[in-house]
UniProtKB/TrEMBL annotation:
Statement: the UniProt record of this protein carries the keyword Repeat: no
Protein name from the UniProt record: NAD-dependent succinate-semialdehyde dehydrogenase
Similarity comment text for this entry: Belongs to the aldehyde dehydrogenase family.
GO molecular function: oxidoreductase activity
Active-site positions on this chain: 262
Keywords associated with the record: Oxidoreductase
EC number: 1.2.1.-
Pfam families to which the protein is assigned, alphabetical: Aldedh (PF00171)
Domain Aldehyde dehydrogenase: 32-484
CDD domains: ALDH_F5_SSADH_GabD
Native species: Rhizobium helianthi
Enzyme class at the top of the EC tree: oxidoreductase
SUPFAM superfamilies documented for this protein: ALDH-like
Length: 490
């Protein structure tokens, strides 16, 4: 479990993360290992124990044993530990960002922003831990009292994605910990190192043994199955594809286990004739190319009304052409590598399908080199609905621009998908703003902005983009059981 020189050369304090702490106790030395790679260079960053069902079951047992004692702490005690973890993450943010860039590839400035965002979730729920309130209800007779209290749901199994490996850890487990739930976390096999570093800091913060448990595994199917079917786990929180979400929901159904899912998206980005075009270009660059387009809320379909289509397309294409592709540690880089060769192949297949059906590549369209997973940021016009890039989530730096005429029709077309995670639009007419905002069938709508994620706001989707919300006070409710107490004979 020792990190290699490929990573330590980027760290200010390599000794702090030399042993990736937080794994369940037991004999891990005999387990097979799996490698974690730098997608920018192909270097091996670490070799980790490849845990299976026995280790997952052990982690669940440890969490279950710690659950009652953790729930019995006062809200202030749990809050203080979250505050200390928050402080340590900020103190070591440069090292955490270095780990994140090395294993995921995103530019170092974006990695630092993600670490700060992760810390913000810990801060938010450190505060919210003290605001778990019950209520009293007026009783129908004088000899009764009716009270509602809230208690932790129990052990939580969390499965996090590779594209935001630090913030997703914090966003899922900070409300669980604030509510009084012990957790078992399985990070994505491509990006487990920042999770290990964060858990090392949690141990330094003083969290009791068994409250936080980390699973390293090269594949998620068996881990997910054990988390979903083990009766000691009372809730599953998952971020990933809709396909996997359906499978996990089926596995949880026999126990009627509570779930929170943040699944796939196909976000529309709509620019109306009355929009500030320059602001819309700025917003589209944010919504499309952050993390090389590898975000669940990435703008996947850019709809631009005819009156401003030419102006938007020209200005947007020019700005995209200025984006610099390269290793996330290099100064001035705004687009890092795609996570793996499968992501590269999907980009290529979407572009080839679009060109075959009449689309025009305005800029980009090719891998940066024959080796690696770097891809030019790409803009495509003359896009029609029958193209794959208009129907499927690309998850890469590909921006298809679709011309539209009628405002009501574009809203209908934006809603014509099984997904409903995020949508964006730019307009200035207040009547139109309210009409479109209410008509879009999405859990989150950005109005004249290309970035809307915040620890203070509920993050989640409609339709097949998920169940439940993360962030805000609403995110805490997903980890609490409501209990009604009726006291008679008074």
């Amino acid at each position: 479990m020792t990190i290699t020189s490929a990573l330590t050369r980027h760290l200010k304090k390599p000794e702090l993360f030399s042993n990736l702490a937080g794994v369940p106790e037991g004999d891990l030395q005999s387990l097979p290992k799996f490698a974690v790679f730098d997608p920018a260079t192909g270097d091996v960053l670490a070799e980790l124990p490849d845990m299976g069902i026995p280790q997952v079951a052990l982690a669940i047992d440890r969490a279950h044993a710690a659950q009652a004692q953790w729930a019995a702490l006062t809200a202030r005690q749990r809050s203080d530990l979250l505050w200390e973890w928050h402080r340590l993450i900020l103190q070591h943010s440069e090292d955490l960002a270095s780990i994140l860039t090395a294993e995921m590839g995103k530019p170092f400035t974006e990695a630092k922003s993600e670490v700060a965002h992760a810390a913000a979730y810990l801060q938010w729920y450190a505060e919210e831990a003290n605001r778990i309130y019950g209520e009293t209800i007026s009783a129908p007779s004088v000899d009764r009292r009716m009270i509602v209290i809230k208690q932790p749901v129990g052990v939580v199994g969390a499965i996090t994605p590779w594209n935001f490996p630090a913030s997703m850890i914090a966003r899922k487990i900070s409300p669980a910990l604030a509510a009084g739930c012990a957790v078992v976390v399985k990070p994505a096999e491509q990006t487990p190192l920042v999770a290990g570093a964060m858990f090392a800091l949690a141990r330094m913060a003083g969290f009791p043994s068994g409250v936080l448990n980390l699973i390293y595994a090269s594949e998620g199917a068996s881990v997910g199955y054990e988390l979903c079917t083990n009766p000691k786990v009372r809730k599953i929180s998952f971020t990933g594809s809709t396909e996997v979400g359906r499978l996990l929901m089926r596995q949880c159904s026999d126990q009627i286990k509570r779930v929170s899912f943040e699944l796939g998206g196909n976000a529309p980005f709509i620019v109306f004739d009355d929009a500030d075009v320059d602001a819309a270009v700025d917003g589209a660059l944010q919504a499309k190319f952050r993390n090389a387009g590898q975000t669940c809320v990435s703008a996947n379909r850019l709809y631009v009304q005819s009156g401003v289509f030419t102006e938007f397309a020209e200005k947007f294409t020019a700005r995209v052409g200025e984006l610099r592709v390269g290793n996330g540690f290099d100064p001035g880089v705004s687009i890092g590598p795609l996570i793996d060769t499968r992501a590269l192949a999907k980009m290529q297949s979407h572009i080839a399908d679009a060109i075959e059906k009449g689309a025009v590549v305005r800029c980009g369209g090719e891998p940066v080199s024959a080796d690696g997973t770097f891809f030019q940021p790409t803009v495509i016009t003359e896009v029609t609905r029958d193209m794959r890039l208009a129907q499927e989530e690309t998850f890469g730096p590909l921006a298809p621009i679709i011309r539209f005429e009628d405002a009501d029709q574009v809203v209908a077309e934006a809603n014509d998908t099984i997904y409903g995670l995020a949508a964006y639009f730019y307009a200035s007419n207040l009547k139109r703003v309210w009409h479109v905002a209410e008509a879009l069938e999405y859990g989150m709508v950005g109005i004249n902005t290309g970035r809307m994620s915040s620890e203070a706001a509920p993050f989640g989707g409609m339709k097949q983009s998920g169940i439940g919300r993360e962030g805000s006070r609403h995110g805490l409710e997903d980890y609490l059981e409501m209990k009604y107490l009726c006291m008679g004979g008074l």
